[in-house]
Write a structure and sequence with these properties.
7-stranded mixed beta sheet; 2 domains; globular; Peroxisomal Thiolase, Chain A, domain 1; about 325 residues
């Protein structure tokens, strides 16, 4: 059996994270991870005539540069798994159109990086693929236009609001080669405690992060050098720590959040931190992946979190369902 506990799948064969490629925007490039990204783009349009076109360019370029970097022929890629925040995941679909590879589009909101990597790992371990590329992206301007208010309106941002990361991260998974290996995957359940404030994503997603992470630890009985969540920011991170402390299972000394890692919360005006599909994607593909390669940590629990709502249902007064997915990685 490749399933342990309630929700965790064990990877029996080799699923190697062969390499990554990350592209970050200007604000991200001014943060503490600036020396870790493969590319920093200073122009929010990057020569395109819309932010949406810019975002798909981020995603397409991340995949193309990952392949060039490793001299990969696209005919040797069995599957491209991708998703993003925009309606009908158009950034991913349009990028896949240009890339010309077999494509599976997934939607997990900001949990998409861990979701796509988890699915890719299962497909490789099941013998259905040898090489899979997982990629996702987000853009501050396109996300604000879709989920909140167009930037031209100059609306006041709430202090609990997070700054959607402009960036894209691509990951190459393979059944051969050297690199850190995915050892287990925990897909989460929808957890919804009734939060309706679209300006407080951290509070909406934190219960799902707690639920999935706790289940993963119970299922695997593993201890990790570092555990990271996707993009809860300061608000959501504090809620997760509080929930574990109330359970007398404190994780504070080994836990951090990509939304607080990517920006300098004190010096950059990002309010509660980073968010968006690109948040956990670029933090993993740059900072966390290098920690594994350099031997700073021997194992990592990488989790991405998502708020599965839409502007339509939010305006109708619906609450915000949360989801989180975990991946256990070892050197």
């Amino acid at each position: 059996m490749k399933k342990i506990g309630k929700q965790t799948f064990v990877i029996k064969g080799d699923v190697v994270i062969r390499d990554t490629y990350t592209i970050a925007g200007k604000k991200e490039g001014e943060g503490p991870l600036k020396d870790n990204f493969d590319m920093i783009v200073d122009d929010s349009l990057w020569g395109e005539d819309s932010w949406e076109k810019c975002e798909l360019k981020f995603q397409q370029t991340a995949v193309e540069n990952l392949m060039k970097k490793n001299k990969i022929d696209k005919n040797n890629i069995d599957l491209l798994i991708a998703g993003d925040l925009l309606n009908q995941i158009v950034s991913s679909s349009f990028a896949a159109r240009a890339l010309g590879m077999p494509f599976v589009g997934v939607y997990g909101a900001c949990s998409t990086m861990a979701l796509s990597m988890g699915l890719g790992a299962l497909l490789i371990d099941g013998g259905f693929a040898e090489n899979v590329i997982c990629v996702t992206s987000s853009h501050f301007c396109s996300a604000e236009r879709q989920y909140r208010l167009p930037l031209e309106m100059g609306g006041q941002r709430h202090m609990s609001a997070q700054w959607t990361v402009t960036g894209s991260g691509a990951v190459w998974l393979s059944n051969s080669g050297s690199g850190p290996k995915i050892k287990n995957v925990t897909f989460g359940k929808i957890i919804d405690l009734g939060v309706k404030d679209a300006n407080n994503m951290g509070a909406a997603m934190a219960p799902a992060a707690y639920d999935t992470l706790k289940q993963h630890l119970l299922d695997t009985k593993k201890e990790y050098d570092l555990m990271t969540s996707g993009d809860l920011g300061t608000v959501g991170k504090n809620i997760v720590n509080k929930m574990f402390n109330e359970d007398k299972m404190s994780i504070e000394d080994k836990y951090d959040d990509c939304g607080t890692i990517i920006f300098d919360i004190e010096k950059q005006d990002v309010h509660a931190g980073g968010s968006g599909c690109g948040c956990s994607a670029v933090v993993f593909g740059s900072f966390l992946y290098k920690k594994l390669l350099n031997g700073d940590i021997d194992n990592l629990l990488f989790m991405s979190t998502g708020a599965l709502h839409s502007p339509t249902v939010s305006l109708q007064g619906e609450s915000i369902p949360g989801i989180a997915h975990c991946i256990g990685i070892e050197r």
